[in-house]
Amino acid sequence: MSESLIKSVQDMLNEEKWTRATISNYSISNFKELDSILRDAKQANCIDEIKALCDEHLSHTKNSIIALYISGISALSRQLLDDSALISLISIFIDNHKNPIVEYLCVRMLDYGESKFALRTLADCYKESDDEKIYDIWERLVKIDYEEADITKQLAEKYEKDGEMEPAVEFYKKALYRYINRKQANAVKEIWSHLVALIPDEIDFFYHVQRKISKIMGDDRSAMLMQEVYEYYKTKQEWATAIDILKIILGYDDKDSWARKEIVECFRGKHAGHSQLDEYIRASNLNQSWRNVFEAIAEFEKHISFDAGNFVYHRSWGVGRIASVKNDEITIDFAKNRGHTMSLKMGVSSLQTLSKDHISVLRAIWKKEKLYDKVKSDITWALKTIIKSYDNNCDLKKVKAELVPSILTANEWTSWSTKARKILQEDPSFGVNPTNIDLYVVRDRPISIEEKLFNEFKAQKNFFARIDLLMMFSERAEPDSEYFAEMFSYFAGYLKAFNQVNEQVIASYLVVKQLVAKHPHLNPGLHYNFAELFSEIEDPSSVYIALKDSGLKRSYLQDIKNFLINWPDIYVKLFPSVLSVDIIQSLVLDGYTEKVQTLADLCFDNYRDYREGAIWFFKNSQEAEWFKELNIPYEKQLITLIHILDITYREIANHRETTENRKINRQVLNILFGKDALLENYILKSDVDTITRIYTLIDDVKDLDPSLKMNLRNKILENHKGFKFFGSEEKTVVSRGLIVTSRMLEEKKKQLQQIIEVEVPANSKEIGFALSLGDLRENAEYKAAKERQNILNTTATRLQEEIDRAQTFDPTTVTVIRVSFGTIVTLKNNDTGLDETYTILGPWESDPDNKIISYMSPFGNAILNHREGENLTFTINEKEYNYSIKNIAAASF
Description:
- By secondary structure, this protein is α+β, with helices and mostly antiparallel strands.
- Helix content is 62%, strand content 9%.
- It is flat, with a radius of gyration of 41 Å.
- It comes from Teretinema zuelzerae.
């Protein structure tokens, strides 16, 4: 069927060429016939061949109607985002005024996703025929064309005329943003004024837009527009907002005499009942043009907060309440210093004023139980109270400092803070500081999810965290928002100018491609593809590792496979660094099993260079058929891991790539000696020769914890009585921990329990009693109790550390071949001719008076590991010793 279809299309192209069919001969039915052919081609799976045929035909017959249509629709159906053929085709029929066909072709384009060209052309068709459908087309157009302002404004005017104010306002806002970007001052002024009339209470919107106007069109224009908003809030006597607006205007021009005069009037309105208002205005020189306006405002606001009933904070006396202000003297009631007086000047310089709902004030005037209950039951209230207490800029560290331990315990904070983080993220009453993602602010009016995510995006400095926010915006908010366009353009910008292809360029490409697939209108018109970008990457492995998001990593690997002919070889090179199961599965499923087997063989044979690869194959491929076919002996795999263990220990000791080697070392230890006990299970099922071979390798790993060797040795002896260990196995296994008897371990645990559960609580009561006696400087009871506390803490810490290091000695493993833990050794003193007998145990059991010595003591260490019949000479504390070992026997336990 496919061959006949291809031939049929070839015949149609030839007939079109030979007959030189005119445009007037075409009708919509002709294109519907071509659609039928495309459907048949899809079923026959020969779309690519037919498209290639049409593309070749267009190379010499560029205006072929049939070839343009089939090639264009084929490209869109494969989501190639290449609409050039259909644009050329539609332009031909536009030039020949064939509007019905133009409309049909535009609709066909839109079947595969939104297109600015198709929508504009369709709108022109409807405009000529005065068709009401034009408004639907306009709405679709402005959603994908972020530069279209005039149509956006016309839509706003239509909705307003129809009395639908909510969509009208949204379209006016969109139009305003777009006129700002186009720097069309008159249009900006017109829509701004109209929005001030329609939605004057949306002050956060005007704040945001004025910042954008200032950045793009200049401070003067922004200040002029904010005057309109100011007049509304002044008329409503919302003094706080009016003052904020005037501060913005003065921030653009601190010499603005009108704004300076207005702010004085607003301060008079806000503090109309203040007893010292006129005096503070005069003292701050707010009315004097020679004084820096912001210095004058700061001084005035500092003074005006000093009035009867207001709260202040002193670093020594804490929170106090102003009882009265008379002339230049204030009287303050502190908790432990009531009726304290000072000059106003001194108060202004030494006291911090606090609002009535400041957390420090509430802590001072509320009962602890009331504050505790409120904080626990109303987390949102607690967050708002604390954040506002820090000038509406606060991170969670400061929140914790205010609550723990004065109100909440550390354990209560853990669950409380988890709920608080969720509230801060989801509650529209909270936002973030635009310059610091860690600082939270409280909003007077709820913030939209779009603006909340946008603010977090602006404050976030981490590149990959910004990707997370962009994708979150795409899922949870309106992607046709102006905020989304600005966020998207940040990453699109990485693809327009770069000197080197790194992880940020690749990540931007992957993100842009993903979003364009979902929203085709976002296509920034890139002039290169993934293969071209990849060819400029210096180290593909490092780029993969640097991509912090797992989804981006998968996309990176998928694009390598989709767009690079030699992807199997690239995958093989990537694997030792990437260690991705996706790579192995893709190679196996696509028939490249032999490459995977060669890679696995390489990793085991060259484990020094590919140690992580060998570990990965051991852990993940045991049950895979392709791995079983390799027939790598299990013993060889285990021996490879033992060698890797030895290598990492030596490199750690030599301070070579310590962090990476520690990570690999932990992996191997967990495999060999973890809960599955793979090494032990294999050894216990093996013959004597295999046991000897593997255990010898384990014993040669110098820095392996001897307790692991001891445990393995014991298991071997349990299953193979009389098994002979050679070389270093005859030596005492001295753990880097502490070898102890089970009896002494239990005693030490009881001793620690006594300290923690009995002696420490008793000592705490002693300290509490001593504190109640008053002056600590002359309090002997307090000093004694504190000294006792230090001794108890030190003892408990030391005991806990020793118990953690303790390795219980197994008496059944005692060996009398050499002096070792658990042996009784008889020594002949060659200087006196007398025999001396000692029992070798650990420091916990040491009792020199009864001839029990620690293997860790200088004397014990000197005789340790020596055989019967050996002569020993050694020096301890400048004293010479000369012994012969007469006998070694096992101690009884």
